[in-house]
Known about the structure:
Layout: E1 3-6, H1 16-30, E2 35-39, H2 54-68, E3 72-76, H3 86-92, E4 94-96, E5 101-105, E6 108-112, H4 123-132, H5 135-142, H6 146-169, H7 173-176, H8 181-191, E7 195-198, E8 205-211, E9 214-220, E10 227-233, E11 238-244
Parallel strand pairs: 1-2, 2-3, 3-4, 6-7, 7-9
Antiparallel strand pairs: 1-10, 5-6, 8-9, 10-11
Helix pairs in contact: 1-2
Amino acid sequence: MSQIFISDLHLDDARPETTAQFIELLARDCRGIEALYILGDLYEAWIGDDDDSTLAQQTQNALADCRASGTRLFVQRGNRDFLLGAMFAERIGAQLLPDHAVISCAGTPTLLMHGDLLCTEDREYLAFRNQVRNPAWQQHFLSQPLAARRAFAEQARQASQSRQQDLKDARQLETITDVTPDAVLATMRHYGVTRMIHGHTHRPARHALDLDGVPAERIVLGDWYTQSSHLASDGDALKLHHSPAP
């Protein structure tokens, strides 16, 4: 009953070494295990399932090979790859998960999320999220040529970086872009779980919680900008791994 959880790889043509490290993880650790869970932001940007880039083809081939080994693949959408769709899932043999998914992990019902919905203080981002998750917005965006979509993705990335810097300068980055503790507890209470696994915040850690007098845990997966991070379950125990970036 081995499972691996990853998030926030932000794969991008500009960082081929990270793509190579991901493909190595698939070949070394993920072949033939029970399941691989990707909890959002696999890509720095996903402009649609018709993306014909080398990165898209290379990574989909590697994931399909992993699935062919017997490993079940599960994918959640993140704030960067919210346009991952049915064609992508079909190509790699994966199941797309909803924003909240409860599974059995190490014998415990566990809630999987990307994590962005827990950052309730980041109201500007949540407003943007509502816009781009709207089916009409997505249909209009996907009707545009690939070149126009790539240009939009680059502009959105630059705007995000600029906003991150503004929040850092105002000394608000740590609070605005992290989870709200009350939202964490309310979400766990709603889904009836004592364990949550998510990414998004790029703050890998295991947090012990008190959920209405019951011990609980929130596990945060790390990003792959400066390291590779994954959570492994052997059926009984969980271990959060970190490796330096190449």
